[in-house]
Design a protein that fits this description.
Length: 156
């Protein structure tokens, strides 16, 4: 019986590794997963602002970041050599730091600079962006990068 289980586990692992990286699926998942999870958390905890943010800033950021990172990694069907040879953890860390930093800057710009220099008033919703954007970017970048690398053939 253990031999059958082992063979089944290997077949499942081989099946997962052979699935191609499909960008539209990754973007759809990047939107749906946080929207459902954060939306459910907002409903359960009765935080209406979290339920609304789940489908807007949280899921929207995740989908946009998944699209941008996935597109950059694919590089027109020919991935950059260094992205396939760099250790998975190092590549993921570099991309997460880059995406999270960009999202944090955008969140700060939107929450702080925009109300101070335009007629847009400062609101609690804008303040949420300072947290929602970088957290969503970090999670989406991590998942997309690891998923993309799992579809790449091991370098020889």
């Amino acid at each position: 019986m253990p031999a059958t289980k082992d063979r089944t586990s290997r077949n499942r692992a081989a099946s997962r590794a052979s699935r191609p990286f499909t960008l539209w699926r990754e973007v759809l998942t990047a939107y749906a997963a946080p929207a459902l999870m954060a939306g459910a958390a907002g409903v359960v905890t009765r935080q209406q602002d979290l339920a609304v943010a789940a489908c807007t800033s949280i899921a929207g950021t995740s989908a946009v970041v998944a699209f941008l990172v996935g597109t950059w990694l694919r590089h027109g069907g020919q991935p950059r050599r260094w992205t396939t040879t760099t250790p998975r953890v190092a590549l993921t860390a570099a991309l997460v730091i880059t995406a999270t930093s960009a999202a944090a800057l955008l969140g700060w710009f939107t929450a702080q600079w925009l109300p101070a220099h335009t007629p847009i008033p400062a609101t609690p919703w804008l303040e949420r962006l300072r947290i929602d954007l970088p957290v969503s970017a970090a999670l989406a970048t991590t998942i997309v990068t690891l998923r993309w690398r799992s579809t790449m053939a091991s370098p020889t």
